[in-house]
C-alpha cells in the first residue's frame, strides 16, 4: 500500500467537484427516466440517448448544421462589433461634452427602454434584406448597453485623476487618451459582457421570425416539424455558441486591462 | 518676498433647500520660500477646500491667491498636490506615473524623463517596482510613488493633504522621517495638512490652525525645534513647551472635557 | 465587577493551505482587576490574534489563558465567546437597521438577562453618562458621527456588564481631534465603571496616555518585548501629554517600538517584492 498515492488521489478528489459531477449524472438519468416513462409534458421530448444518436448521425456530418453556426455567429459578430464601434464613441461624447449631452441624451433615454425584440417588425419593414434586419437587432441591444455604461463611467471618473493630470500640464487630448479612456475600460468590459449575452438572446428570436437559416431557425423548424431531437440539439448548440462568445469577450477584456491581476 | 500669499479667501457652497454653507471666511496667510508649514484644523473645516484653491482646482468667491507675485487662477505644474486618497493612475505602471509630468508638460524628452524618473525611484527605494501597477503596492509605497510623481516636476509649491492618513502609526512615523529627508534636500515650499498633533510637531516649522465655522486662520504656532527631530529632541524641554502651546491653541478647554468635537 | 487575566506562554500558529504561519510565540503577562492594559505593536504582530483568543473567538496552539483563575483557553479547548468578555472593533459593528437604543439593548434582551424595562433604563443611563447620548436613543447609527457611534458601541459593550472590555484599535480611523475626545471619554468610562480593559493599538502615545500598563510586542511571530508600567496619576488630563514624566515614559518605549516598526516595514516591503 503506497500512502503517497492515496494522499494524491484524495487531493485530486477534493479538487474535482465530484458532487457537481454526480448531480449532472443524476440530471441526465432523471431526464432519461421522465422521457422513457412518457411523464406528463414529456410526450414529444426525446431522451438524452436519442438526442446523442441523432446528433452523431445527422448533425455532426451535416454541412447545413455547421452553416447555421456560421450564419448565427456572423449575425452576432457584425451586430456586436458595430454596436461597440458606434456605441463607445457616443458614450464618450455624451460623457464629456455637455451641450452634446443636452441635445442627444434625451433621445437615447427615449429609445433605450424599447426591448431589442420589439424592434423586429420595424426592422423588417425598414431594411431591404432579412440579413440586415437581423443584424440591426443584434446591434441595437448591445448598443444601448455600451452607451450607458461608458457614459456613466465617464461621470464616475475620480476628479483627482483629472485634476492631477491638469496640474502636471497635460493637454485635453492627452488627458482624454491617458486618463479618460483607460478609466472607462472596465465599464466597456462590463458592457461587452452584457452586450454579447443580449446579442445571442435576440438573434435566436429574430431568426425564428425573420430568417431561413441559423441556429434559431433550426430550433424553430424542429418545433414546427415536431422533431424533439432537433429542438434540443438547437438549444444546446445555442448555449454552446453563447458560451464560446463569452470566452472570446472575456479574453479580450483581460487583454484590455493588464493592471488587474 | 513671500512664496505664497493668500488674502481674504471666502467661499460658500449652495445647498438645496437650505441656506448656503459658508466654508471659508477671510482666510489669509503667507508662506515663506523653502518653508515647511503645517495646516491643522478639525475635520470638515475647509482645509481641503483651501488646498484645492492653492492648487487651482477651485476658485474662491472673493480674495486672492498668488505665488511669487503671479495670481493663481488655474492648475499648473508649479503647484502640485498630493491628495488624501491616493490618486495614482492605476492603469499605468509606477514608472509611467512618475514620468507623466515631464512628458505631459514637454519639459523633458522621453529619455530624459525616464532617466530622471528612474533616479528618483531608486532614491525612494522603489526601483524594483518600476514596472508594477499601483494596485500591487502597499499604502506606504504608493505614497512614496506619489511624492516622486510630484517632485520630479520641481514644483514651487507642494501641497500635501493628510498624506499619511490611514497608514498605521508606525508606518506613518517612518514616512515622516522619510519625507523630512527629502525635504531637507529639496527645500521645496510645502504646505502639509494634518489632523495629528504629533505629526505636526515632528514635521513642521510652523503650524497654522484653522478654526471656526466659517473658518479662518485662528492661530499660528512656531515650532522652533532643530531638524532632525530625533527622539532626544522630541523628549526635550523645548519640545514639551511647544507641545503645550500647540495644544492650548488647538484645543480650547471644552474640547478636552469629552464634549463632542 | 472586573476580572484578572493571566496570559501564560500563549502561542498561535495558523495553517492556511499548509503554509504554517506563527502569529504568536510564548506571550506572557498578567492583568490585574480594574487595570487598563494597552498592547502596542506593528501590523501583523498578532495583537488581534491574542485578543481573539481572549475573547473566545479562536483557539490557542500552546499555553493557557486564565480569567479570574479559571482556565479560559488552552490547546484542545473549544473557543467560547461570552458576554463576560466583550469586544469593540475598529469599524462600526452597530446594526444599521436598528436604532441606538435597540442596538444597545440587543445583547441583554437576547440573553434574557434583563427585562425590557430594566434594559432600557440601564441603556438610557449609560447613554446619558456618555456625553448626553440618551437624546440620540431613537436615531439610527448612520445619523451619528463616528465618534458618537464609537461611544454607542462602548455603551453596548458595557450593557452586558462584562468583566473584561476588549478594544481592537477602536479609534484608528478617526482624525486627531475626534480621537482626543474619545480618549477622554474612554478614560471617563474606565473611571466610572471600573472594568478591566485590554486595548490594542499601534499608537504608543495613545497607549501611554490611556493605560496603566503598556505591553510592547515584537513583529511576527509576536511575543512580549517590553512591559512598561505607566505611573501617571489618574484621572489623566491632556496636560500630562507635555509633562516630563510622560516624555520619559515615551522615550523608554520608543526605541523598542521603533525597532519593531522598522522590522515589520522592511519585511512588508520584502514580501511585496
Helix content of chain C: 25-40%
Rg of chain C to the nearest angstrom?
19 Å
- Find the CATH superfamily of the largest domain in chain A: MetI-like
Shape of chain C: globular
How do the SSEs of chain A run, as a string of H and E?
Answer: HHHHHHHHHHH
In spatial order, strands of the major sheet of chain C run 6-7-8-3-9-10
Fold-level CATH name of the largest domain in chain A: MetI-like fold
**Low-pLDDT windows of residues of chain A:** none
| Unreliably modeled segments of chain C | none
Please give the radius of gyration of chain A in angstroms.
24 Å
Shape label of chain A: flat
**First CA to last CA of chain C: what distance?**
50 Å
What does this structure look like?
The complex is a heterotrimer of chains A (261), B (261) and C (273). Chain A has 11 helices and no strands. Chain A has 261 residues and is mostly helical. In chain A, helix 7 (130-155) runs antiparallel to helix 9 and helix 9 (172-210) runs parallel beside helix 10 (215-224). The longest helix of chain A is centred in the last third of the chain and has 39 residues, at 172-210. By secondary structure, chain B is of the alpha/beta class. Chain B folds into 2 domains: 4-78 and 156-256, Rossmann fold, CATH 3.40.50.300; 89-154, no CATH class. Helices cover 33% and strands 25% of the residues of chain B. In chain B, the strands form 2 sheets. In chain B, strands 6-7-8-3-9-10 form a 6-stranded mixed beta sheet, with helices on both faces. In chain B, strands 2-1-4-5 form a 4-stranded antiparallel beta sheet, covered by helices on one side. In chain B, helix 2 (94-105) crosses helix 3 (110-123) and helix 2 (94-105) packs parallel to helix 4 (139-151). The longest helix of chain B is centred in the last third of the chain and has 18 residues, at 169-186. Chain C has 273 residues and is of the alpha/beta class. Chain C has a domain at 94-161. Chain C has 7 helices and 10 strands. Chain C has helices at 47-55, 100-110, 116-129, 146-159, 176-193, 204-210, 244-272, and strands spanning 5-14, 21-31, 36-40, 62-67, 70-73, 85-88, 164-168, 196-201, 213-217, 224-229. In chain C, helix 2 runs parallel beside helix 4 and helix 6 packs antiparallel against helix 7. The longest helix of chain C has 29 residues, at 244-272. The A-B interface holds A 158-161, 163-171, 174, 178-179, 182-183, 185, 257-261 and B 55-57, 74-77, 79-81, 83, 85, 87, 89-92, 100-101, 104-107, 133, 135-136, 153.
